[in-house]
Design goal:
alpha/beta, 338 residues, UDP-N-acetylmuramoyl-L-alanine:D-glutamate ligase, four-stranded mixed beta sheet
Length: 338
């Protein structure tokens, strides 16, 4: 599968003061590259940044619209003991302009899936409608378009405006975290869930996720439960982006004839993504947080074989064939859904 991802890469400054590669396109792109997909990332960053070379080291094609005077969007992330994040912005690259959207549209021809993954309000609403003219399978995690920041750089969230909400109707699939919807009024939440994308996945950490289908049911998906020690010492950065990438990989493309089959496949895709994102959190010797904590498919197999009872419990809990959890290859979208 050839996937194109658009959004800013970021320089993330850790608690220890290290500068590491981050941003939704990085986490999602590396996740898909480690699963042997062909990945192109379209971004805006300082062309001299070594972070771009790090992204390329995974076999990812990088199209960078950054100029010589560009910065790299920079975040400082801090987590409390409950895993809640406080973010500060230190620098922001330019947003995508119309000329770049035109080039991105041309680059999206022939890609099975296009993922729009903003991190710092860099994606204008017209990008969605223009891309939809050439690609019917647009997936987005738009929470980066909800981010704003004050003079001290502390990030806060605002609801979607009408233009952006309307733009999401051009997407096949949207993922968003419950945390990023906390500022929504009940009416704004209802409009978002009922009047935007055809399918919306709302993630909620250790509480699992819910799938909302337009004119269809709401399906709740439980989380794979980690031990207290795994949670307390676990890797937290980029988990939502990792989960979005796996949902995107495994989500079927609806053929319009059997919504029940589509809904069933989406349930499996989200449960698998929840399971593998939980595995990303579990600490491993010699592995640091960030992109390093993303597991390969072989990693998933080995862990599942060593912890088969826990895998079996989750399969029973979700009422899904256990093979979907210990064999990452089994749920690739079937040909009729492409």
């Amino acid at each position: 599968m050839h996937v194109l991802l658009a959004g800013h890469i970021t320089k993330d400054i850790t608690t220890e003061g290290l500068e590491v590669l981050g941003g939704p396109v990085s986490f999602a792109g590396i996740t898909l590259a480690k699963r042997h997909h062909s990945v192109t990332v379209v971004t805006i960053a300082d062309p001299e940044s070594p972070l771009l070379d790090e992204l390329r080291s995974y076999g990812i094609e990088v199209i960078n619209f950054g100029r010589t005077d560009e910065v790299v969007t920079t975040f400082v992330n801090r987590y409390d003991s409950h895993g809640n994040r406080e973010q500060h912005v230190q620098a922001v690259a330019r947003p995508f302009d119309q000329d770049q959207i035109n080039q991105l549209t041309n680059a999206s021809f022939g890609r099975q899936k296009v993922m729009i993954l903003p991190v710092a309000n860099e994606v204008p609403s017209q990008m969605f409608s223009q891309l939809r003219e050439v690609n019917a399978n647009i997936i987005t995690a738009p929470q980066g378009s909800l981010r704003r920041w004050g003079e001290n750089g502390k990030v806060y969230h605002v609801p979607f405006d009408d233009d952006y909400l309307n733009a999401l109707t051009f997407c096949q699939l949207v993922t968003i975290s419950r945390e990023d919807m906390e500022g929504f009024s009940p009416l704004q939440t209802q409009r978002f869930l009922e009047q935007s994308a055809k399918t919306i996945v709302v993630t909620d950490g250790m509480h699992g996720a819910s799938i909302h289908f337009q004119n269809g049911p709401k399906i709740d998906v439980p989380a794979f439960q980690l031990t207290n020690e795994e949670n307390e010492r676990g890797f937290l950065t980029g988990n939502g982006d990792h989960m979005t990438a796996i949902i995107a990989e495994r989500s079927p493309f609806p053929n319009g004839s059997n919504p029940e089959i589509y809904q069933s496949h989406m349930m499996i895709a989200v449960a698998q993504a929840a399971f593998e994102t939980a595995l990303k959190i579990i600490p491993r010797s010699g592995i640091e947080d960030g992109t390093m904590s993303i597991r390969t498919m072989d990693d998933v197999r080995l862990w599942s074989q060593s912890n088969i009872d826990r895998v079996r419990d989750y399969a029973n809990q979700t009422n899904i064939d256990i093979r979907h959890f210990y064999d990452p290859e089994i749920s690739r979208p079937k040909e009729i859904y492409k």
